[in-house]
UniProtKB/TrEMBL annotation:
Pfam families: Acetyltransf_1. One of its GO terms (molecular function) is acyltransferase activity, transferring groups other than amino-acyl groups. The lineage of its organism: Bacteria, Pseudomonadati, Planctomycetota, Candidatus Brocadiia, Candidatus Brocadiales. It comes from Kuenenia stuttgartiensis. This is Ribosomal-protein-alanine N-acetyltransferase. PROSITE patterns: GNAT. Keywords: Transferase. Residues 16-212 form the N-acetyltransferase domain.
Length: 215
């Protein structure tokens, strides 16, 4: 039997090689991220850098992404990490040269350098007992918003976490992203705290404990 991801990929295009299909998938996801999470720090690093991140998620034990396909195109995706520290380590181990080439010109800007360091060191800031696992990004293309696509993706994400033996996870979301905050609240996220991943920019932390769920 096909997994949901394989099934989605098959709907995308039947006759393409898996490698090409994955590249198209990653390209679409990077574009969606760049367009709809435009206030996020990762988007400022550019599409090539985002593609490296999502390419790795495709093959990582530390992270994954899941997609929703309509009419042969990806209309939404969600990504999750089991351990963000583990994922960053894996990222720089596998993409040191490419990652540095993409990052270096951006790092010449002091603000980007500061934000890169804040992003990298954020996981080390253990302010309280927050789960390591994290919903990293979720996007639904605007023509498909308000139709339950993100809800479907969120349910898939929860299933995937459970399959990987993860029962607690969090999300860190810009406090100004009102729709996203309402969405996480609707999905049962429990507000934990306000934090600043980047100096002067407030984010809200929500968490889920799947052990408390009744099936
Ligand atoms: C947040 C986002 C993913 C929601 O996607 P969506 O497919 O429109 O959401 P759904 O249709 O599945 O909505 C599920 C619930 O979330 C809540 N919700 C979703 N969008 C909302 C909005 N704009 N305002 C208030 N509540 C909203 C609703 O309670 C909704 O339940 P209901 O339909 O029973 O009212 C989408 O708006 C998006 O891609 N935003 C841009 C990217 C972003 O900010 N991502 C989060 C940061 S990583």
């Amino acid at each position: 039997m096909l997994s949901r991801r394989e099934d989605c990929r098959n709907t995308l295009k039947k006759n393409m090689s898996t490698k090409r299909l994955k590249n198209i998938e990653v390209e679409q996801i990077a574009n969606l991220h760049n367009k709809y999470i435009d206030t996020g720090f990762l988007s400022t690093l550019g599409i090539p850098f985002l593609k490296l991140i999502y390419q790795l998620m495709n093959n990582s034990n530390n992270a994954f992404y899941l997609i929703e396909v309509e009419d042969g195109k990806i209309v939404g995706f969600v990504s999750g990490v089991i351990s963000i520290r583990g994922f960053y380590k894996e990222f720089f181990k596998k993409n040191f040269i490419k990652g540095t080439v993409y990052l270096l010109p951006k790092l010449l800007k002091p603000v980007t350098m500061r934000k890169t360091l804040e992003t990298l060191f954020y996981p080390a800031k253990k302010e309280n007992d927050l789960p390591d696992a994290e919903l990293l990004s979720i996007v639904v293309e605007e023509n498909y918003q308000g139709k339950g696509v993100a809800r479907k993706l969120f349910i898939k994400l929860v299933d995937e976490f459970k399959t990987r033996g993860v029962f607690r996870f969090k999300v860190v979301v810009g406090s100004n992203l009102i729709a996203a905050c309402r969405f996480y609240e609707k999905m049962g996220g429990v507000y934990d705290s306000e934090t600043e991943v980047h100096k002067g920019e407030k984010s809200r932390v929500y968490k889920w404990d799947l052990m408390n769920e009744r099936s």
